[in-house]
Amino acid sequence: MTDAIEKVKLLREETSAGVTDVRQALERSGGDVEGARRLLGDQERVVAAEKGDRETSKGLIEAYAHFNGRIGVLVEVDCETDFALRTPEVKELARSIALHVASEDPLAIAPEDVPPEALEEQRAIAEGGAVESGAEDVAEEAIRAHVERFAAERSLLTQPFVKDSSKTIGDLLRETISKVDENIVVRRFVRYEATGSGSFCTIVDGRTLIVRDRG
């Protein structure tokens, strides 16, 4: 009994899922914690997908200053209702995303929205550094994999969370959607970095890189 209680406690702390959901996941996995963790993750993805088409017209702006004020971030997170925006879960999500953007400097919100010019640049790098193998299709596959990996590494939702690399920002988003039972969207963010020689600004609006310039 004690072991079962400890498993429930562990999974609740890790996933923030309800007691009933955790117990059901453990039952379906035969008491295996890792299996239950996967089931709970699948459940969060299903819940997020079901709510994905709901309108998110209520927005929250989170501001964050990092590195002694040299890096500043604004993030807009949108929900369905004002009630959800006021919950600790959504506020914590917005804070976590702002901190992450300051640290990791993503180029887009999702991989499919990485600017084409950035992908072309990576493709050129991969082509220039490719080892001649005599098999054009193999080389092309390696180049494509390089570009796809770059897109995932530079996109907010697919980046490992800077404070917990076992989760991506997308995982955090789905967890919060499951907790508040509403659709949540990361709408846009601005990252501004001041350096000794000027400044560097990245603005991602509606999943499109608008500005990335040094002035």
UniProtKB/TrEMBL annotation:
Record keywords: Cytoplasm, Elongation factor, Protein biosynthesis
Cell location: Cytoplasm
Record carries keyword Disulfide bond: no
Principal localisation: cytoplasm
GO cellular component assignments: cytoplasm
Residue ranges of domain Translation elongation factor EFTs/EF1B dimerisation in the record: 56-175
Highest taxon, organism lineage: Bacteria
SUPFAM superfamilies documented for this protein: Elongation factor Ts (EF-Ts), dimerisation domain (SSF54713), UBA-like (SSF46934)
Recorded GO MF terms: translation elongation factor activity
Gene3D superfamilies assigned to the protein according to its UniProt record, in alphabetical order: 1.10.286.20, DNA helicase RuvA subunit, C-terminal domain, Elongation factor Ts, dimerisation domain
Functional description taken from the UniProt entry: Associates with the EF-Tu.GDP complex and induces the exchange of GDP to GTP. It remains bound to the aminoacyl-tRNA.EF-Tu.GTP complex up to the GTP hydrolysis stage on the ribosome.
Family: Belongs to the EF-Ts family.
Protein name per its UniProtKB record: Elongation factor Ts
Organism of derivation: uncultured Rubrobacteraceae bacterium
Lineage, uppermost ranks: Bacteria, Bacillati, Actinomycetota, Rubrobacteria, Rubrobacterales
